[in-house]
Design brief:
2 domains; five-stranded antiparallel β-sheet; 11 helices; 360 residues; ADH-like_N; binds NADP nicotinamide-adenine-dinucleotide phosphate; oxidoreductase activity; elongated; Quinone oxidoreductase-like protein 2 isoform X1; Rossmann fold; GroES-like_sf; Zn-ADH-like_protein; single chain
């Protein structure tokens, strides 16, 4: 379907003031109506909130790797067309259902939705809303859930990282990588080796707090890490790339080291040679942050609360790669020669982007 924004050009505030809650109102939403095609911006009719639901005025929505995958039909979850992408957002509570007592109108919140954040408003279960502390701006807050939630879960819950341990982070200038670098250095007091595909990306990771870097675009990761830490290896590795980068990170582990499989941005899923686990008593473990929402909600919720708390305390500082307006649906992807994003998102997005080339 053609990518046409069909907003009526009215000020948002006007749209929000019309009629009573949920009655006859409309809001603009980004819609994926066809996979691998640009998103359409359409006016959608508001529906009344049910007793256990909350309506949020969405101010910023994070743009994640998973949003791009889902709009291409390449994500593990495949919502039915048409759908609105956007898994994380920040905003203010517009209206609460009669059974809701945990938030009230006007509260500043972040939310984690299945897919529906790239819209001017969304209706959500209050269980997946967290109050934003006063010193955390809405823009920064929107970028916390996926990347910082994942980083905190990987480092604290899965790898049990201890102060002073050496942490190797691959794709360290990606959204997840930068969050891992930030939490590992500035919260957990670990020594971080940031590995990335260019000198520019390594520089960005250093600015976030990494102690040393490896540009794996210029040579082998394992050898470079060995030069930095000696034959002992690193205590923890957090990998979002997969393929050979994962295997080299696995081979860089120290005795009783831990590697966390977070993603396969490079497109290749490596097999783990079990003998490597045995020889140095190392552990390889997986992490799927979103799955904790169903499987272990207290752990999931703690990642969000911790991220907000660390941000409020000034210990972490999310990196905003770029900010798009809702109607800006197409943008050049600047990394690794990826072609034009077919379904680029943007809902006044606090978009974290990996690539210094599109930083604002
Ligand atoms: N398991 C979970 O719960 C979870 C949560 C969040 C993210 N993830 C996954 O983690 C991965 C990274 O996510 P992100 O948000 O950090 O993404 P991002 O901000 O887009 O960063 C991706 C990074 O991956 C590296 N990369 C290597 N090969 C690539 C390729 N062929 N295309 C694109 N990037 C490539 C690039 O860094 P270099 O050039 O430095 O290699 C790039 O900066 C994704 O696979 C995502 O789905 C998983």
């Amino acid at each position: 379907m053609a990518a046409v924004a069909r907003g009526r050009g009215l000020p948002r505030a006007w749209l929000c003031r019309r009629a009573g809650p949920g009655c006859g109102r409309h809001y603009r939403a980004a819609l994926c109506t066809e996979l691998k095609q640009p998103l359409a911006i359409e006016e959608v009719a508001s529906r009344p909130v049910r007793p256990h639901e909350v309506r949020v005025d969405v101010h910023f929505c994070g743009v994640n790797f998973a949003d791009i995958l889902v709009c291409r039909g390449q994500y593990q979850e495949k919502p039915q067309l048409p759908f609105t992408p956007g898994m994380e957002f920040s905003g203010t509570v517009l209206e609460t259902g009669t059974d809701v007592s945990t938030v009230k109108e006007g509260d500043r919140v972040i939310g984690v939705s299945g897919f529906n954040g790239m819209a001017e408003e969304c209706i959500i279960d209050p269980k997946t809303l967290w109050q934003i502390p006063e010193r955390v701006p809405l823009r920064e807050a929107a970028t916390l859930p996926v990347s910082y939630g994942t980083a905190i879960l990987a480092l604290e819950h899965r790898a049990c990282t201890r102060p002073g341990e050496t942490v190797l982070v691959t794709a360290a200038a990606g959204a997840t990588g930068l969050a891992v670098v930030d939490v590992a250095t500035n919260v957990l007091q670990a020594q971080v080796i940031a590995a990335a595909g260019s000198d520019e990306k390594c520089k960005l990771a250093m600015q976030k707090g990494a102690q040393s870097t490896v540009n794996y675009g210029q040579g082998g990761l394992k050898e470079a890490v060995r030069k930095l830490v000696g034959s002992g290896g690193v205590s923890v590795a957090i990998d979002t790339v997969g393929g050979d980068v994962f295997l080299e990170a696995l081979r860089s582990l120290a005795w009783e080291g831990r590697i966390v499989v977070v993603g396969f941005a490079g497109g290749t899923i490596a097999s783990v040679p079990a003998n490597l686990l045995l020889l140095k008593n190392v552990s390889a473990m997986g992490l799927y942050w979103g799955r904790y929402k169903e499987q272990n909600f207290p752990v999931f919720s703690r990642t969000l609360s911790s991220a907000l708390q660390y941000c409020q305390q000034g210990r972490i500082q999310p990196h905003i790669g770029a900010v798009f307006k809702l109607e800006e649906r197409e943008r050049e992807s600047t990394s690794r020669g990826r072609s034009r994003l077919p379904a680029e998102q943007g809902a006044r997005c606090g978009a974290r982007s990996q690539d210094p080339g599109i930083m604002t």
